Amino acid sequence: MYQYRNVTDDIFWVGGNDRRLALFENVHPLHHGVSYNSYLLLDEKTVLFDTADWAVGRQFIENVTALLNGRDLDYLVLNHVEPDHAASLEEVLLRWPQVKLITTAKAVQFLGQFGFHISPDQVDAVKEGDERSFGKHTVTFVSAPMVHWPEVMVTFDKTEGVLFSADAFGTFRSLDGKLFADEFDFERDFLDEARRYYANIVGKFGPQVQALLKKASGLDIKYICPLHGPVWRRDIGWFIDKYAHWSAYEPEETGLLVAYSSMYGGTEAAAELLCAKLAQRGVTNTHLRDVSTTHVSELISDVFKYSHLALASVTYNLGLFPPMHAFLEDMKALNVQKRTCAVLENGSWAIRAGALTRESLAQLKEMTVLEPSVTVTSALSRDSGADLDALADALAASLKA
Ligand code: FEO
């Protein structure tokens, strides 16, 4: 049975929700599923904006077929050809073989790499600033390379102010029958997943996102239709402001992520005592996470949220504890920057975790490391309290500044 929703009188959501996928991109855990959004314009011509992941392919095709109601599909605009959006292309071509593809030249190359060999006659390759009219609706194309792949463009419907934004402004989490962000308590139900999606999927490409935001600021946007998550029609500026912070690597909040790795509880105790000492100093926006049991995508999301970061690692095989090493590597891969950090280390012999943590942080841009660092030898001792007091003083002063 089809299930579609009106975005405007002429534009419809025709996507699907996937609640079975455990790992997005086979990496990032999905706690509440994900939606694959596709949109259909019914004008003098019929125009589909992107397809959907094959996991929801039957639902997607049923939605499109129901809305077309016997009409042909004239155009398919492909803003992004990663398979979570282009995998149903073959099915579209089988059902509506005359459809003309409107996309970028780079996208055609990628489609070929994924095994979709499209005849050049069937492609209308567009570039920044090109326009196409479908009757009442005229759209213009805006290049958005690396948001999140090189071929990406976004499409702006000038007639109704609808931005088809590709992965930009997307989120994890399924839609569950609703569509618009204002049909949810977005801040309560979606913001953490939106941040985790942004930070881990697009976070590396902050400058490119900033470039897109700059171009978007010149458009009279009334709706944002991303490829994942809710459609925006109210308070659009609130969500754009989140993107402005995330893409500039500016924290959303003054607060502290305390990420620790601990084998037998010594480092964990030190991290917790640091939080207690901060609470005694009036600092309570602290968030204690075990890197062994917190997925790195969640840690990265917290790093994008908070201004301060304390890393407490045990030494392991003369190096960093593997999950802490992976977290630091992911921070580097995703271009994390502009944070104030504290370093704690532990070990029973040949303690190296602190030096290695500092080396990793030194590879990131504009990271400030507070003094002093704290060294724990196996477990907290009488001396540890004074060291942690000194670090808590420095953190509290910085967090209250
Ligand atoms: Fe949702 Fe970059 O694909």
End-to-end C-alpha gap: 57 Å
Query: How many discrete structural domains?
Result: 2
Mean pLDDT: 97
Q: Supply the number of helical segments.
A: 13
The CATH H-level superfamily of the largest domain is Ribonuclease Z/Hydroxyacylglutathione hydrolase-like
What is the name of the CATH topology of the largest domain?
Answer: Metallo-beta-lactamase, Chain A
The CATH class assignment of the largest domain is: Alpha Beta
Strand content: 15-25%
Please state the structural category. alpha/beta
The amount of helix comes to: 25-40%
Give, in spatial order, the strands making up the sheet with the most strands. Answer: 1-2-7-8-9-10-11
Please tell me how large the radius of gyration is: 24 Å
Based on the coordinates given, report the CATH architecture of the largest domain: 4-Layer Sandwich
